[in-house]
Amino acid sequence: MRIPLVLLVLPALASCAASVDPGPLAGADPAAATVRAQERQRAATLYRDGLRLARGDGVAADPERGGDMIRRAAELGHAEAQAFVGTSHLVGTVDASRAEAAAYWLERAALQGHAGAARRLGRLHADGEGVPRDRAWSVVWLARAAERGDGEAQFELAMLLIAGENTRHDMAEATAWLTRVAAAGHPDAARYRDAAASKLSDGERADLARHLERPLRRGAVANPDPPLLRFVQQALTSLGRDPGTVDGIDGPATRRALAAFARDEKLPRAEGYVPAVLDRLRVRRRELAGG
User: Fold this and answer.
1) Domain that holds residue 113
2) How many beta carbons lie within 10 A of that of residue 132, not counting itself?
3) Angle between helix 96-111 and 79-88 (nearest 10)
4) 181 within a domain of the structure (yes/no)
5) Which of the two ends of the chain, N or C, has the fewest CB atoms closer than 10 A to its terminal CB?
6) Rg of the chain over CA atoms, in angstroms?
7) Number of domain units in the chain
8) Is the entire prediction scored with pTM above 0.90?
């Protein structure tokens, strides 16, 4: 007997929720934009009604039918539904096919700016579940979750920045994330924040102030965004190329170094931050790191 998806994942739903702002369809054909808006509304209705049906909120509970409605909403592009379906594959016994399905749905949600999905996807990359193990790439998704207000991701990212594990060592940014998390009531963040702050130089304190002034991001993941750019810059540097400063800022030095890498790898017509170039860069970085 198949256990309904909703019964498996409802307990984890609260921690997966996030506000997603898809933004306007700039420059889209008006008729196509109308159709897309109707699809979004249909998906939102399916997701809402699917949850009500699964929970029995004011209606007779039917978890299996509710789960089917949530899956249909996910297929229509609803980020919360996609995160829900992805998370459901991580409940109970997780085999290779379920892990791959989780990664697929979580990435679709994360690209729309769903913070919880991005954090979970980062952990899949860190552990090699459903995707090749790539801890440096996992930090990209963890940072995207942190930038969109996920407290768990903010704390984890701060710890990695302090240790310099699979990302740069940056005490100022780590202290900024810990400051945000401590303000939200994280039980351990305040003592780590105070310890990190006590070691900052004057220059790092100025960097800390700038980090704290920067607003959190919302909405879909841009290409390229700062987490991706930092990954590219760090990977190119480790491969002996010169992308300039590892600062998460798109600039001519980074683009030149990435274009030279693509040419040397004989990637046809691959320019800029396209999947073919990024995937090859990840492979070469993993080979250098020993897997």
Assistant:
1) 5-18+26-127
2) 12
3) 160
4) yes
5) N
6) 21
7) 3
8) no
